[in-house]
Fold this sequence. Notes:
This protein has eleven helices and twelve strands. The chain is of the alpha/beta class.
Amino acid sequence: MPLIFNIQRFSTHDGPGIRTTVFFKGCPLACAWCHNPESQAFEPELMVDEERCTGCGACISACPAGAIVRAGDGSVTTDRSRCTACGACVDACADGLREIAGDQQLPASALARRLLADRMFFERSGGGVTLSGGEVLAQDGAYLEELCRELHNEGVHVAIDTCGQAPWKRIERLLPHVDLWLYDMKALDPDIHARCTGHTNDLILSNLERLAQAGARINVRVPVVHPVNDGIEAMDALVAYVTSRLAGARLSLLPYHATGNGKYRRLGREAHSGFSAPTDEQMERLCQLFIDRGITDVEIGG
Length: 302
């Protein structure tokens, strides 16, 4: 059964209208600029806000694995190689500075019932449910099919936010039950894509083109990251690709942001450096580039 690390209600950035977004844990890619690093691993992980820790030590005695110790300077540290993410220290921390990412599991039918509780907001706003991650398509296929089918049969708009790194059969079985595909395109150049995500984009582009050929409604979402893919040459190549392969797809240009960097620290990891956000003026110029090339269904954000 898939792990869930967040269910976000009243979301307005993951498809049309007011939505409830389910974030599944685990992703085959490892994007260097990922703003949800807690979504990458397929197992639960401990997140600790050590900067705000008062050093009371309650977590030390609570940890059955002996993974939490007091350092020579009096601070409390966690040996993550010994941590089993059992959650005992989370319960012991009176300040709420510890949490387990990926501690929820719900059968598909139970998750559907929980999501349907927000149906009133979906109907009033033209919203629905978005399945995100991590990577949705890396989860159990039968589970996803049951969940999407039940929501779709109830008249709920279903969107899937995906990187596309999955077998086509996994996508094909969901096609009848999904209304919108929010399809991330990290980089068109295969070498850059491999360097920044750990995989080439061969399968990703193949699946995207097959989705377009199947008549699926697609919103291609491009994270614009300096200096990875924000140059005119890279964007010209993207224009040519969208024009020739993805007629009718909506395009969203998403400016990079570093708001997730604090999560790396809470996971005991270092955030990647060297990335920055394009300016508002640059984003406007890139958007206008697509419009000038005849791709008018393009937006900044979304």
